[in-house]
UniProtKB/TrEMBL annotation:
It holds the Pfam family HATPase_c. It comes from the Bacteria. This is histidine kinase. It catalyses: ATP + protein L-histidine = ADP + protein N-phospho-L-histidine.
Length: 474
């Protein structure tokens, strides 16, 4: 490798030093060093004392930060003149530490300057600029921390409210069904005792139990009925009960219909027990059928709760490695569950999934944040009424995830700026303008994918393209 000749002219080729005076460049030349690193080398470790300011001359690097104990890549660069390391050297704190780790992707060469000496000289060269930079840096850091914390709290609050709302319905249903089940079991015991006092022959009681077991097994397979079919079936069974002088048969008819019984089913009960025991047998049977249906309701409710908890775990990726091969449909579905409360009943959700898509190498939790940002914006644009469409497809060596809404659309001027940080079309106080910027960086920078938007009134579509190859997520 040929060593570059460090001269004023050489330094002025780097954009950082282009406008420096001769005496300033002379100071740089007196303190600068050339450092070479082979590919794969860890050059800077996050958290170590920030002692050097690095300027890239050749090669490519990548920066990472630790997030939740996992190393997250933030940027890659091969631009000559890019800088890293002690980039806040101008800030008047003596104990500064590297904010990121830096690794060599290829063999590379740096110009390095001692951070403390460079800071003192920089302040003497540009005293006013140093004060402005310090003020800007402090203001940005405080605002970023405050806005970021507020945004996280708002997002967490919305997610918690939505999940709590979704959990409350099946939990309340399970509680109600359990209370009703207790009453029905007690009633069933009471009716069985009454039947036993009537000196039923053992064979007849056994036959009655067989009839009960056979009819109870039909409950799970009871066909769904329309309101009209339900009413007609109840009238039919009510007439059957009235013809046989069963008191308050209108109370029993809805139970038998919900369990899938017909008048023909009741004929079999009559054949088994006879007229004398029919009333008690039917009421005992009603308790047994209702008990079975209540247990089914409890099972459905608890299964729903378990599914919601599973969706929350899938959304947060709390029990998974940060980077893995994932099915994008899992993340989309769990995001819909988490946002169900915000989506509401006025928005129809349409899923047009290609279930034959391959898995993709990705950071699942981060992609879920992308789906959240885009879906949240779509729901806000539709203002409670419209159609939210989620479509997936294979396009060459990439997977397409498209999220569309029927809102008013995005103007051409807005579309040009929509991925800029802090740009928002929402009213003051309702948006930070960071959601789509974050989504862009996750899709494009982290996953080497692409994020596009197409929009016209009534048809806005955000299109996320993710590569299916492992090297895209290195």
């Amino acid at each position: 490798m040929t060593e570059p000749q460090l001269t004023r002219e050489f330094l002025r080729e780097l954009f950082l030093f282009t406008s420096l005076a001769d005496d300033q460049l002379d100071w740089i030349l007196a303190h600068v060093k050339l450092e070479h690193y082979p590919a794969g080398t860890a050059i800077i470790n996050e958290g170590d004392p920030a002692t050097c300011f690095y300027v890239l001359l050749s090669g490519a690097l990548r920066m990472t930060r630790l997030v939740g104990g996992s190393e997250v890549e933030t940027i890659r660069s091969d631009q000559r003149g890019s800088y890293c390391g002690a980039t806040q050297f101008f800030y008047g704190q003596h104990e500064q530490r590297y904010a990121t780790s830096v690794y060599a992707i290829t063999d590379l060469t740096f110009l390095t300057l001692p951070a403390r000496e460079f800071a003192d000289q920089f302040r003497s060269w540009f005293p006013m600029a140093t004060h402005l930079l310090e003020g800007t840096y402090l203001g940005w850091r405080n605002s970023d921390a405050l806005i970021g914390q507020r945004r996280r709290l708002l997002a967490l609050g919305e997610m918690s409210a939505g999940l709590t709302h979704e959990l409350n319905n099946p939990a309340a249903a399970a509680v109600r069904a359990t209370a009703a089940l207790r009453e029905r079991v007690a009633g069933m015991r009471h009716k069985l005792a009454i039947l036993a006092k009537r000196d039923i022959e053992p064979d007849l009681l056994e036959q009655l139990i067989d009839v009960q077991e056979r009819l109870v097994k039909q409950v799970a397979d009871a066909p769904p009925l329309t309101a009209m079919q339900q009413a007609d079936r109840e009238d039919e069974i009510g007439d059957w009960l009235a013809d046989r002088d069963i008191e308050q048969g209108w109370d029993l008819a809805p139970i038998f219909v919900a369990a899938g019984l017909t008048a023909e089913s009741l004929d079999h009960v009559l054949e088994s027990v006879g007229d004398a025991l029919l009333d008690g047998a039917l009421r005992w049977l009603a308790y047994a059928l209702e008990t079975e249906m209540l247990m089914g309701e409890i099972e459905d409710s608890t299964t729903r709760i378990s599914a919601l908890v599973g969706a929350a775990k899938q959304y947060s990726q709390m029990d998974r490695a940060p980077h893995q091969w994932i099915d994008v449909h899992d993340g989309l579905d769990s995001t819909l569950v988490m946002l169900a409360g915000k989506i509401g009943t006025g928005i129809e959700v349409v899923k047009d999934y290609d279930r034959d898509l391959p898995t993709v190498p990705a950071y699942g939790a981060e992609l879920n944040q992308v789906w959240t940002n885009i879906i949240d914006n779509a729901v806000s644009a539709m203002e409670g009424a419209g159609t939210l469409t989620l479509r997936t497809a294979r396009e060459g060596d990439r997977v397409l995830i498209e999220i569309g809404d029927t809102g008013p659309g995005i103007s051409a001027e807005t579309k040009q700026r929509i991925f800029e940080p802090f740009f928002t079309t929402k009213p003051v106080g309702e948006g930070t303008g960071l959601g789509l910027d974050i989504s862009w960086r996750i899709v494009v920078d982290r996953h080497r994918g692409d994020l596009q938007v197409e929009s016209e009134p009534g048809n806005t579509r955000f299109q996320v393209y993710l590569p299916t190859t492992e090297q895209a997520s290195e």
